[in-house]
Amino acid sequence: MPATAEAPSAAELAESVEAYLADNPEAALLEDGRVLFDLRRAHYAVSESHGRCLVEFWGEEGNLVRTVIGVQQKGQILRLSTRRMGAPRPQLLELVPNKDRRTPSSRETARRNYQRLLERVLTRNFLGARVEGFRSAMDLEHSFGPAYVRGRLLRGVAAEAVIGISQAESGAMVDGILTLGILWLDLCRQRSDARRHFEGLKVIVPAGAWRTTAERMAWLNHGTARFELYTLDERSEELEAVEFRDTGNLDARLVHAFSAEAALERCQDGVARLVSLTPPDARQRIEVCARSATEVALLVHGLEFARVRQTASAQSFSRQEEITFGAGRNETPLTVENEELCRELLRRLLRSRHPDGLHTDPLFRMQPERWLESELRVHIAEVFPGLRGEMLYSQVPALSNGDRGMLDLLALDRSGRLAVLEVKADEDLHLPLQALDYWIRVRALNADRQMHNGRLQSAFERQGYFAGAEVALLEPRLLLAAPALRIHPANEPVLRHLAPQVEWELIALGEQWRRELKPVFRKHSNDLRC
Questions:
Q1: From CA 250, how far away is CA 442, in angstroms rounded?
Q2: Mind listing the pLDDT tens digit for each residue in 337-358?
Q3: In this structure, are 81 and 151 located in the same domain?
Q4: Collapsing DSSP states into helix, strand and coil, what is residue 328?
Q5: Which of 110, 216, 435, 453 could in theory staple to 422 by disulfide, Cβ–Cβ 3.0 to 4.6 A?
Q6: Backbone angles phi and psi of 309, in degrees to 5
């Protein structure tokens, strides 16, 4: 934006960000040169609220919410000066036209250079040990991608598996290194002869990018291997050990619960108007979910198609109702003039999104995890006996270190024990450790006990969750659900390495889960521990 005498308003900042994203549909969000979000797959929202410009990005990589206080266009890059909750100083984010500006040949060269650097640093720091077999070649059979350099560190008959990743790779790739490290350790042990014993795993991440790996590593079973975490400054070639055990009890915060019943009552007129646009014989298929105290979403099998909001009136202190249809970038205010367009969208959605729909139809295929989650909400007691269906929360926002994550489902069982449910409709190599992230947060919030209303209560109870119930001071259960043929083969080996305190259960569902939600088999942590 051109310089002005005054700082740009929140609306002007939002307009600049929106214009850039509209002109660059394949943009990526970077921080310190690392890719945080690839906007070809991730989602974003830009809004102006109470004089602040807010940007939110979410996707498989997680969630990020920041306040934008300034923008600067430099060539094809839009630099955002932002504030994060609790941070004393502004942070710089960059929007670039695409995720990776390197050519394939430059990527390959950079990875070869990193491999040589890693071998040199290990040789210098671990005297008496010998580096062997380092490579970064693609190995689809064992789920290894070229971003990860892996090898062995040998000392007599003892050995350790080593895996590292360069600072040039994306943040999501860096955060995924522990999954690949566990798989690499297992493969080294399988291929080792009886004369050599692989005692553990060394994981090496870029300087400043250790927190996620450290939090996860703290909750591995350290009786199965010696896990070590290091950061490598590629410029100075300094290797530093990270004491990950100190990160086990992270600072986690929770958004206050709201009354879903009150939200539905506030928005009932707008909901009724949207439902009236639906064919009468299909209205029972509409799911109405409260998203906040003033916002309600309408969905068909987990796919949101409309929202009703109570917003402040610009002319008075009273509230007015805002109805939109479509979602994300296609969200459109509902008016008398476009009611027929909304009606046609609903017809097509209901025609496409049903259990017997065409698998090639985009509306059938969109957001399968949200569809599966919607089925689980209805049939929770059948799939997970012992859980209380009336004590179930969907898409719970939990905060840690200033960034936000969404728990798929959070429930309470009949003994008052918390259960974290992570749902996947497609193969996901990183499912176990992504689910562990949420388990760690829920555990920390449950362990945060303070005197409230005459007794010690968890953060969940103090923030209004599970009203009328008492949440037990027990380690949460970790429940993972996915269609049987969509469970990645690497998930079980990783689950076996979780700490004994993490009691998990893997539920495989029938492939026809859209028509009938039926468990095919279950595997429990007590059955598969290393």
A1: 11
A2: 899 989 988 998 999 999 999 8
A3: no
A4: helix
A5: 435
A6: -125, 145
Cα→Cα distances 478→401, 424, 495, 527, Å:
22, 14, 11, 15
Same domain, residue pair 339 and 464 = no
| Residue that finishes a domain, picked among 96, 124, 155 | 96
Among candidate residues 234, 241, 248, 144, the one with its CA nearest the CA of residue 202 = 241
Q: Round to whole Å and give the CA distance between 371 and 514.
A: 8
Strand pairing category for 148-155 and 43-49: unpaired
Instruction: Quick: pLDDT tens for 61-72.
Output: 677 888 999 999
Residues 280 and 333 in one domain: yes
Q: Which one of 96, 131, 163 terminates a domain?
A: 96
Whether residue 411 is contained in a domain is answered as: yes
Q: Are 205 and 174 in contact (CB under 8 A)?
A: yes
Same domain, 292 and 219: no
Of residues 358 and 105, which shows the higher confidence score? 358
Rg, Å, the chain Cα set: 25
Residue with tokens 């950061």: 231
Residues 268 and 214 in one domain: no
pLDDT in tens, 501-526: 999 999 999 999 999 999 999 999 98
Same domain, 221 and 153: yes
Q: Which of 117-121, 196-200, 328-332, 393-397 has the lowest mean pLDDT?
A: 328-332
Provide the residue type at 51 as one letter: G
Residues 218 and 156 in one domain: yes
Q: Read off the DSSP letter of residue 139.
A: B
Domain total for the chain? Answer: 4
Residue 177, C-beta contacts closer than 8 angstroms, at least 6 positions apart: 148, 163, 164, 165, 203, 205, 213
What domain range is 32 assigned to? 10-96
Residue 299, amino acid:
L
Q: What are phi and psi of 307, to 5 degrees?
A: -140, 150
Residues 388, 463, single domain; the answer is yes
Residue 498 DSSP code: B
What is the spatial distance between Cα 115 and Cα 148, in angstroms, rounded to a whole number? 9
Partners of residue 289 on adjacent β-strands: 297
Alpha helix positions (H), 405-471: 431-447, 459-462
Q: Could you tell me the CA-to-CA distances from 69 to 1, 237, 387 in Å, in that order? A: 13, 35, 45
